[in-house]
Amino acid sequence: MSKGKKFIFILADLFFLTILIPILWDYFNYMNFRWELMPSSEIPYIGNHLSQYIFISSSILGALLLICLLILIFYPKTYQEVLLDDKTGNLTLKVSAIEGLVREIVSNNGYIRNPKINVTLYQAKIKIDVKGEIIPRVEIVEKTKEIEQEIKESIQNFFGINYDLKLKIKVSSLAENKSSTSRRVE
User: Fold this and answer.
1) CA torsion angle for 180, 183, 184, 185 (degrees, to 10)?
2) pTM of the predicted structure, to 2 decimals
3) Hey, how many other C-beta atoms are within 10 angstroms of the C-beta on 89?
4) What's the gap between Cα 104 and its chain centre?
5) Which of 159, 135, 130 has the alpha carbon at shortest distance from 147?
6) Do 70 and 85 belong to one domain?
7) Domain limits for position 102
8) Do 67 and 32 reside in the same domain of the chain?
9) pLDDT digit string (tens) for 63-96?
10) pLDDT digits (tens, 9 = 90+) for 125-144
């Protein structure tokens, strides 16, 4: 886990604990244990402000949970396959088929080495991410645009898909040129 994620999780945990511990403190006396605690409002220095803090932080937490719920409700459903209907019959297209076609196109162009391809299918949209090392050549931007256009045309022509196609090519690094002119030392 990265340091940033760990830091965010620790802050969220501390935030939840500062809400939960005073609530537990106050409701401890209602459990009929043999000994009792003083109410949290009587704790020195923070007792007067604790009820305001719990109210405000609970309101913020409730709003965040409501926003998360709305995001979960309206998040688009992803599919592993898409059904293509035609007058002559049906065809089920899987994610792996699209990945294979994109991998073939990228490897035939020879501009991107070690491509990692991620395809996400939505109801009426296909999202394709291609990541890899680009071989240093001239006009890199134009070459990636050519690859994008070729992938879009191939998917539309080969599979007959008229979906909205979102394609993103990310270059992770420049691939090193391996020179074959090195000499052996005798």
Assistant:
1) -160
2) 0.57
3) 7
4) 25
5) 130
6) no
7) 81-174
8) yes
9) 888 898 888 788 788 888 877 776 777 778 788 8
10) 888 888 888 777 667 778 77
Residues 127 and 59 in one domain: no
Question: How far is CA 133 from each of CA 4, 98, 110, 144, 148, rounded to the nearest angstrom?
Answer: 26, 21, 11, 12, 16
Other C-beta atoms within 10 Å of 49: how many?
Answer: 10
One-letter amino acid for residue 122 of the chain: Y
**Domain boundary pick from 74, 105, 130:** 74
> Roughly how many angstroms between the first and final C-alpha of the chain, as a whole number?
49
145 vs 153: CA distance, rounded Å: 12
Burial class of 133 by CB neighbour count within 10 A (0 to 12, 13 to 18, 19+): middle
**Phi-psi region at 180: left, alpha or beta (left = phi > 0; alpha = psi -120 to 50):** alpha
C-alpha gyration radius of the chain? 29
